[in-house]
Amino acid sequence: MIERSPATIDEFVRGFPAATQEILKKLRRLIGKLAPEATEAIVYGIPTFRLNGNLVHFSALKNHIGFYPTPSAIEAFKEELKAYATSKGAVQFPLDQPIPYDLIERMVQFRVSEQRKKAV
What is the C-alpha separation between 75 and 32, in angstroms, rounded? Predict the structure, then answer.
């Protein structure tokens, strides 16, 4: 059987356990508040906010929340991200630890600033 990608962020979120859904909903609200002019989409099969291109992506897996703020944000916040598994453009926030919404907020603000500069 072939599983299709979710068509909307709501559909994506519904595919997870209730506790994970709450985290995903909170991330969505936070990003939407920080980037009200951004549009929502499903890109690469995961929730994405777009503002002059991809702003950030987020997802959930069995044991962590994946947050994809692009390589520039990972580099800019590398000291604060030392406690988490990271790659070139992604960070993993374990589900068995508090989600650092304050750090995510600063990373989104950083990305919003970068993307607004693109529009000029």
Answer: 23
Q: Which CATH class is domain 9-119?
A: alpha beta
Closest to 80 (Cα-Cα) out of 46, 112, 105: 105
Read off the pLDDT of residues 31-44 as tens digits, 9 standing for 90 and up.
Answer: 999 999 999 999 99
Q: What would the two tokens of residue 64 be? A: 């962590």
Transcribe 29-75 into DSSP letters. HHHHHH-TT-EEEEETTEEEEESSSEEEEEEE-SSEEEEE--HHHHH
Say what the pLDDT of residue 2 is.
46
Q: What pLDDT, on a 0 to 100 scale, did the predictor assign at position 113?
A: 96
Going from N- to C-terminal start, the domains of the chain cover 9-119
**Closest Cα partner for 111 from 52, 66, 64?**
52
Distance of alpha carbon 68 from alpha carbon 74, whole angstroms: 9
Distance CA(40)–CA(9), nearest Å, equals 8
